[in-house]
Amino acid sequence: MTESRDVVLWIASNVPQDILDTFAIAGSLEVRTEATINRESLRSARLVIVPFASATTVGINDLRAAIDAGCDLILLIRGDASRADASRFGAQIATGVEVVDILDPLSAREILRHALKIEPRLAENPSIEMPIELDAEAMVLLRRAFSDFKQVEILEEHGGFSGSRVLRITATNSDGKLAQPFLVKCGDRKEIEDEVKNTREFVLDYVPFPNRPPLVSIRCVAGSSKALIVSAFVERAVRLDLFLKTGLPEIVIAALFDGPLRNWRRQAERRRVHLSKYYQEQGIVPTEPKVLERRFEKLKVGVPVGSLDPAALLDAFAAIEAVDTLICRSHGDLNVRNIFVKRTAVDVILIDFEKTTEAHAARDAATLDVSLGFSFMETPIDEPVLDRLYAPHVLQNKDYPRADERSEASSRIEAIRQLRLQAASECLTRREYDLAIAVQLVQAFWKWQEVGPERLVIAYRLASNLVQSLRDESKQT
Fold first, then answer.
1. Do residues 8 and 115 lie in contact, with contact meaning Cβ atoms separated by under 8 Å?
2. Hey, which CATH number is domain 136-235, 3.30.200.20, 3.30.2130.30, 3.30.70.270, 3.30.110.170?
3. For residue 447, which phi and psi values (nearest 5 degrees)?
4. Which CATH superfamily is domain 7-117 in?
C-alpha cells in the first residue's frame, strides 16, 4: 500500500560530491537535483533538502507542501552562525524540520541516516476527487490516506468541542468494490498525533475490543500543520446525545462503566491529592483570573449576581484542602458525542482518546455529567432544574425531576442520576465529586463554543456555588 519513495530531492543547488559518494555506497536511495519543488516529484520522495540561503526564494508554502506530501525536510546551513536563524525559519514551516551544517565533516552521514530512518509513507493520489470543501492541506492528507482507492464519498459528522473536522469516508477501489466505512478526524497536528499515540499506548491493549473502534494506523498521516487519525467507522451505533432522545439511559450508563472504562478503573490507586492544584496543572481550570474575565467580555455578559468574580473564584478554588482520592487512567473528554451506543444498548463504544491520561477517577464521570446537563441538546434542561441538579452535595441529591412522558431532558436527567450512582460507589468522599463537577462547569464556561452565552453563565454561577460551599467547609475542618 505504501510506495517505496526512495528519492531524496536536493533543491536549488548542486549536490556536494561527498553526499553523492555516501549515498552511492548505501545504494538504496537516489539523490535527485531539482530547481524547484513540484508536486509530481514529491510523490516519489521521502526527504527534501534545501539550502537555507535559498529557502526564502523557494517559499514557505512550497516547503510546507513537501511536508504535507509526506516528506521530511532538512535546511542546510554553511557554518553554525546561521543555525539559530534557520531553526526559527524551520519552526515557521512545521515541527520537526532539521537543520544540518554542510561544513560539518559528518554531515553526509547524518543526512543519510536521516533518510534511511524515514518509514515508508503513503503518497498522494491526485486523481481522487474531494466531494467536500476542504483546505489544500486537508485534501492532500486525505488523498494520501486513501491513495489506494479510486473514489471516496465523504459525509461530515458533528464534532465535539475541539474544532476538528470529523468525516465518514466510504471508499471504492478500482474494481468498484466498497470498503468498510472509515471515520476520519482532521485537526491540529500535535493534537492528532497525541491522540494516535494515546490510542496505541493506553487503549488498544487496555480497552476491550468491542468498546473501541479499530485504529487504521497506516492511514494516519501528518502534514505541516494538520494530521488525520483514521479508524473503522462504528456501524449500527448512534451517538449518546441522539440515543438519549429515545433510548434507556440506565442500561447505557451501566454498560459504559462495565465495558470500556472497566479495566482502567479496576486498577485505580488511592492517593492524597490537592485536586484544585491538580486540575490547574492539567490546564482544565485556568490559573489567571484574566482568562475568565476575557471570556465574560467575549460573551458580552457580566458575572452573575451573587457569584464570585473570577479572581475570588480561583482564590476560593485554591483554598480547598487536599483529599484522599482514587487515580486511574481516564478518557479525558467523555462528552456525549464521544460515546456511541449499539442498538441493543449493551455495547458502548468510546472514540477520541486525545486527552487520555492518568487522572482523578471522578473526572470522566463529572465530564459526562456536565455534558449531559448542558451540551448538544435540542430542548435544554430548564434553569431551575439545573439549579437542583448541580446544588452543593451533588451525590446526596435525591431531588431528580421526573416527567410523565420520556423526553430528551428527562432521559438526560435519568442518565445523570444513574451516572452519580456509579460515581458514589467510587468516590472516597462526596466533596471530591462536588469539586470535579465545579471544575467541569468552569471548563464549560471557559472553553465551550457550541453552547449559548446564557447557558454558559448558568454553568459559571453553579460552579461558583459549589466552590463557595467547598471553601466554607474547608474552613470549618
1. yes
2. 3.30.200.20
3. -115, -30
4. Response regulator (3.40.50.2300)
* CATH node for 238-476: 3.90.1200
Residue boundaries of the structural domains of the chain: 7-117, 136-235, 238-476
Q: Report the C-alpha gap between 297 and 274 in whole angstroms.
A: 31
Partners of residue 76 on adjacent β-strands? 51, 100
> What number of other Cβ atoms are within 10 A of residue 396's Cβ?
13
C-alpha cell at 384: 431551575
Q: Can you give the pLDDT of all 477 residues of the chain as single tens digits? A: 656 789 999 998 889 999 999 999 988 899 999 999 998 999 999 999 999 999 989 999 999 999 999 999 999 999 888 999 999 999 999 999 999 999 898 899 999 999 999 988 999 999 999 888 899 999 999 999 999 999 999 999 876 566 789 999 999 999 999 999 999 999 999 999 999 999 999 999 999 988 999 999 999 999 999 999 999 998 888 999 999 988 788 899 999 999 999 999 999 999 999 999 999 999 999 999 999 999 999 999 999 999 999 999 999 999 998 999 999 999 999 999 999 998 776 789 999 999 999 999 999 999 999 999 998 888 889 999 999 999 999 999 887 877 556 788 899 999 999 999 999 999 999 899 999 999 999 999 999 988 999 999 999 999 999 999 999 887 776
Is residue 166 classed as helix, strand or coil in its secondary structure?
strand
- Short-list 384, 366, 388, CA closest to 443: 366
- Residue 154 in grid coordinates: 465523504
Among 441, 434, 459, 470, CA closest to 319: 470
Largest CA distance in the chain: 84
